[in-house]
Model the fold of this input.
Amino acid sequence: MNTYKIGTVISLSLALVALPSGVLYAKKRAAAPPAAGNTQANPKDPGGHTAKGVEFAKKKEYDKAIAEFSEAIKAEPGDSKNYFNRATAYRGVNKLSEAFSDYSKAIELAPQDARGYIGRGEVLLVQKQQDNALADFDKALQINPNDPNARRFRGFVYVSKSVWQKAIDDYSVVIQKVPNDGGAYERRAFAYRNLKKFKEAIADYTKAIATDPKDPDGYRRRAQAHILAGDSPKAVEDFKAILKIKPDDVDAQSRLKALETRANASPTPMAPPPAAPKSSPPVAPAQPSPAASPK
Done:
């Protein structure tokens, strides 16, 4: 089984429900849209507690957000959005048990809203309950088959379980919906690589690099795929690209030297260059951010 750090995906789907007419999304490298109309009195938000909570959460003042969402729950105990929002804020302060309970209450009140299952599934992922998380993502996708967040997280579970083709299928939907998602390309590339589909893996790593050309690890992953595909000259190019970005990268220096030594040596059989560290998705902060975030 492949074990990955969870932070890289957990912060991707944070959504705070401002009002029934709109959702505030926190996407990778993008600010949340403004809460249109939230500054005015709204009969569906008695006391304005939901709107205030959303604003506090956007500023990462999660304790204040929790207090406001708690007041909103007192005013509207049957409204699922308030439990969903408070659960999201609880995640911001790593109170996972409380977040799980609130997501479960949101599901109870709105069982056909996929977001509750996705949020609870994320909590279960952090708690390393992959099978239970998978069940929640499956349920979310029964409700909304093409939800990119549910597909992204389920794909992550499949990668962790080495179920490569199912991971590829899920990340393909994510890429169709979010064409500039570098993380989805990278993880799909990893799945292709493990199926020894190196051409497809290299193509996806190239797409991932295009979304963040200053990340040396993107070139490192592609270099390893080139080596596995038997194309050492292309791997040399990638290690040189790393050293242009990060001249003191010891791993790139060592592996480039090994490849160049091998290329310049006589035909006598030689050992392959040192293996790269096991490729895995880049690690991002585990704390969710409603305003701006990260793969």
Q: What stands out?
A: The longest strand covers residues 15-19. The first helix runs from residue 7 to 10. The two ends are 20 Å apart (CA to CA). The chain has two domains: 7-177, 182-264.
